[in-house]
Each structure stands twice: as C-alpha cells, then as structure tokens.
Fold each of these.
Amino acid sequence: MRIKFLKRPAAGKVCFWLDLDNTLHNASKHILPEINESMTQYVAGHLNIDPAQASQLRNAYWLRYGATLLGMMKHHDVCPQHFLKHTHVLPKLHEQVLPDPQMRHLLRRLPGNKIILTNAPLEYAIRVLALLRIQSLVHAVVAIDQMSINGRLRPKPSGFLWPAVKRLVPARKHVLFEDTASHLKSVRSHQMKTVWVVPPRFPKQHKAGKPAHIDHKVARFSQSAAWSFTLAQTGQAGSLGTLMR
Ligand SMILES: [Mg+2]
C-alpha cells in the first residue's frame, strides 16, 4: 500500500486513525443517501436491471464484502476508478459538509500522528477535509483507492488492512475512531485501540451497550479530548469508558 504523506509523521508517537463520514462530520443526512442513490443507479445502469433489484444486489454485496464496489469488481468486472468517480459527484457537497469548530480545535492541538482512514475515494475525502477546514491538520489520507494489498483492494473491515496501515507509521500506539461497529471487529487482534463514535442521531446504537470487541464509546470525536491528549502525551491512557452526552 502506497500513500502520500501531507506532513511527515513522527515515529514513536501515538497514531490516531480517523474514519471520515459520520465520525468527523455528519454524512447521514444528505451525503450518504445521495451516494447510495448514485450507486444504485450505477449498478442498475451497468447491469441493465431495475433500481429495486440493484438496491438488493448492493445490499448483498455490502454484507458479503463490506463494500458495493468489491462485489461489482468481483462479479461484474467494474473499473473501480470509474465506479468511484461516478458515484461521488455530489455537486452540492459545499452545502452539505458543516465545519465543526470543536473537532477542528482538537485536531489542531492534539499531538501525535493523525491519519484519515476512509472507505470513500481519495478525491471525495480531500473535498470533505477542505470543507471541514482540517486538511492541513492531518498527516495523510488513506482512502479506498489506496487500500490495495498484493494487487487486491482490501478496504475496512478486511483483516489484511490493519497490519498494512500499521506499517505506514511506526507509532508507539495505534487508535482507531470509527462509527461503523462492524469495521472495528477485525481490529482487536492487531493491537490497535478502538473507539466507537455513535452520535445521538443514531438512537438505537447510541443507547445500546458497547460490544465487547470495542474498547471505548463516545458520541463525538471531540468528547475524547482529555483521553486522547493523555494518550498522545504519555502513550498510556486509562479507561475512556462510555461518554454519551
Ligand atoms: Mg464512517
């Protein structure tokens, strides 16, 4: 896996791996429904089937492979670049991404390495980071187009991904912030700490208990500020527990 660093990472520090959509900003209201719609249209057009069938197929691929794209590549010979480009057009993205001053403040002050790790395409991720005004605060972006390991795309939750991302930064400790609980399951055996980000707009998961495979649970990334600072400065941090206000 090859990535371009925006800033040189510091060896021996803590590395914070940050998911993007629904972890650092709210993508559930407008952005993800629009992407889902585009993907359904793409699948329907490519396979010449109706949208209901396309939606069913997408769901099956998502459950089986963790991403519609992987199913489309495996079974229908789709070009990943073409698929990602045409399903992430989002002409109104500038109206849909809302900057979060608390999150920006935390990222600016937090020591250690901060790397975006997203199953979204790189071009989209860069656009979102610019709109959130945090592109200069992260060391790198690892997007789905770059998650190629031995010639195969291995996006989250692939167990092949974690050793590969850890090799990118020789860190003292690795922590992953992520809103999709199933993505955190395969992380446990790779000595990375996991923080599940569950905003109140997802009431079922927000109120539910924390699954055993997850270390900590917070409602927003910025809620972890004190814990993240201690971890970044000392390499050790006690229980963040569950912060759900
Ligand atoms: Mg997410």
Amino acid sequence: MVEILKADLHLHTAEDRSESIEHNAYRLLDEAHSQGFDVISITNHDMFTFNRKLCEYAGKLGILLLPGVELTVEGRHVLVIGELSGIRQVKRLKDLYKLKREQTLLIAPHPFFPASRGLGKSLFAYLDLFDVLEYSHCYTRLINYNRLAVRVAEKEGLPMASFSDSHKLWQIGRSYSLLLGDRTHEGVLSALRSGAVQMVTRPLGPLALIRTIQWIVPGLVGKLLDNTLKRGSQKHTVPEFTETIMDSRNAG
Ligand SMILES: [Zn+2]
Ligand SMILES: [Zn+2]
C-alpha cells in the first residue's frame, strides 16, 4: 500500500565509539517514534548497528528499520542503505559499483560541505554511482553549500533527500524526507530512487547554529589531530564491522 512515509536515513548513535554520542540505538528509536517517523536507518561510521533485537524493537514502535552504514572510502563518506552484503570488500570508491543493485541504495551525504568528508569534486567522477544526493542539514540562510548539490542534482536528474545526520537527539526531526511508497525495504528504496520525495528541512537559526558548532568543532579538532598523528601510517580508512548484518527482509 502506497503511503506517505516520514523517513530519516542518516542517523548516528552511541554504538559508534568513534563519535561522542550520548543516545544509543534504542533511545534513538524512542525519539523517532515520538516524532512519528515511519522509516529510519542507523548509519554509524564503518560499522553496522543492526540486528534482530533492534529490528523487533523498531517493529513494535511501528518503525521500519533499514540496515545502513556511513562508509569511509578513500577518506570520503558514502551512505549505503539496504542490502549490505559485499560491503567488506569495498576499499576504493570504484568498488562501490559492485553494490549497485536494486536492493541497495547509494547516497552521497553532505557532498559539498567543507571540512566534512563529503565527496566534493570526487562526486563528478562518480555521478553514475549514486542514486540520491543528500541535502545536508547543516546550512543557514546565508551560507548553504547545498546550492551546488541542488544544481548538480538538477543537471544530472538525480533525486535529493534531506536527512538529519543526527549526533544529538535535538537534531532529529530538523531535516527529514517524506516519501511516497510502500512501507517495505523495496518500497522505500524505490521511492527514493524515483524521486518520490519531499524534503522537509529548515536552515539552522542562531541557537541551532551555536549548538551545532558546539559539538561539531571539538569533534573536527579531535579528528584533525588524530589524522595528523596517523598521517604516514595509514593511507585510507579501512572499515571495521562490529555487528553482524542480516537481511532486513527477514526481520522487523
Ligand atoms: Zn558524514
Ligand atoms: Zn553522518
């Protein structure tokens, strides 16, 4: 049955120990439920936060939980949603073509946001790889790096979707997407792919901007220091996977 689905497919939780996040996946699901979300995906960095128990918990709340991950490939972030088999073999951006299939969605998150690990100019070499470009939550009325992403999406006929990239609970619900599709793994992916998406997003106001800077800047400084210390010893981040993946169609 086709319905309007409130969706956020870019969310982080405390299970990702590379980030300092207070809420775990269950607390996130509670918050998503309280805000009436129908579909979410937990996209922690280079790890899976998805298992049967979590799926069952989401199912009880009426939420469809899709497997997801925010992969770091060649130092760039890529969201992979849905069927994740074969992901361990991805070492280079070109390896992502092996994941290009109906049950897997490839999203370019925050593509042109500076100081993030967005694809930036690399996106132009891989435009045929991505199903969707993300409209990043992080912008103000004056400064909005999504404008270039919108131009690229329009020129290339690529759909866009807005998600929260939440690291804090207060961020959830600020940017999300309404999808027109079936409440199933396949229905959600096909709605996004076909552009049956309405973005619901608003620029950061002064208070939200201050709160965002408060958590983003210390994190960036920490990562820069970390990268400087590691420089020379590591060319690319190689994903580590700490949770077992399972086919979402067998659960939730
Ligand atoms: Zn990212
Ligand atoms: Zn993210």
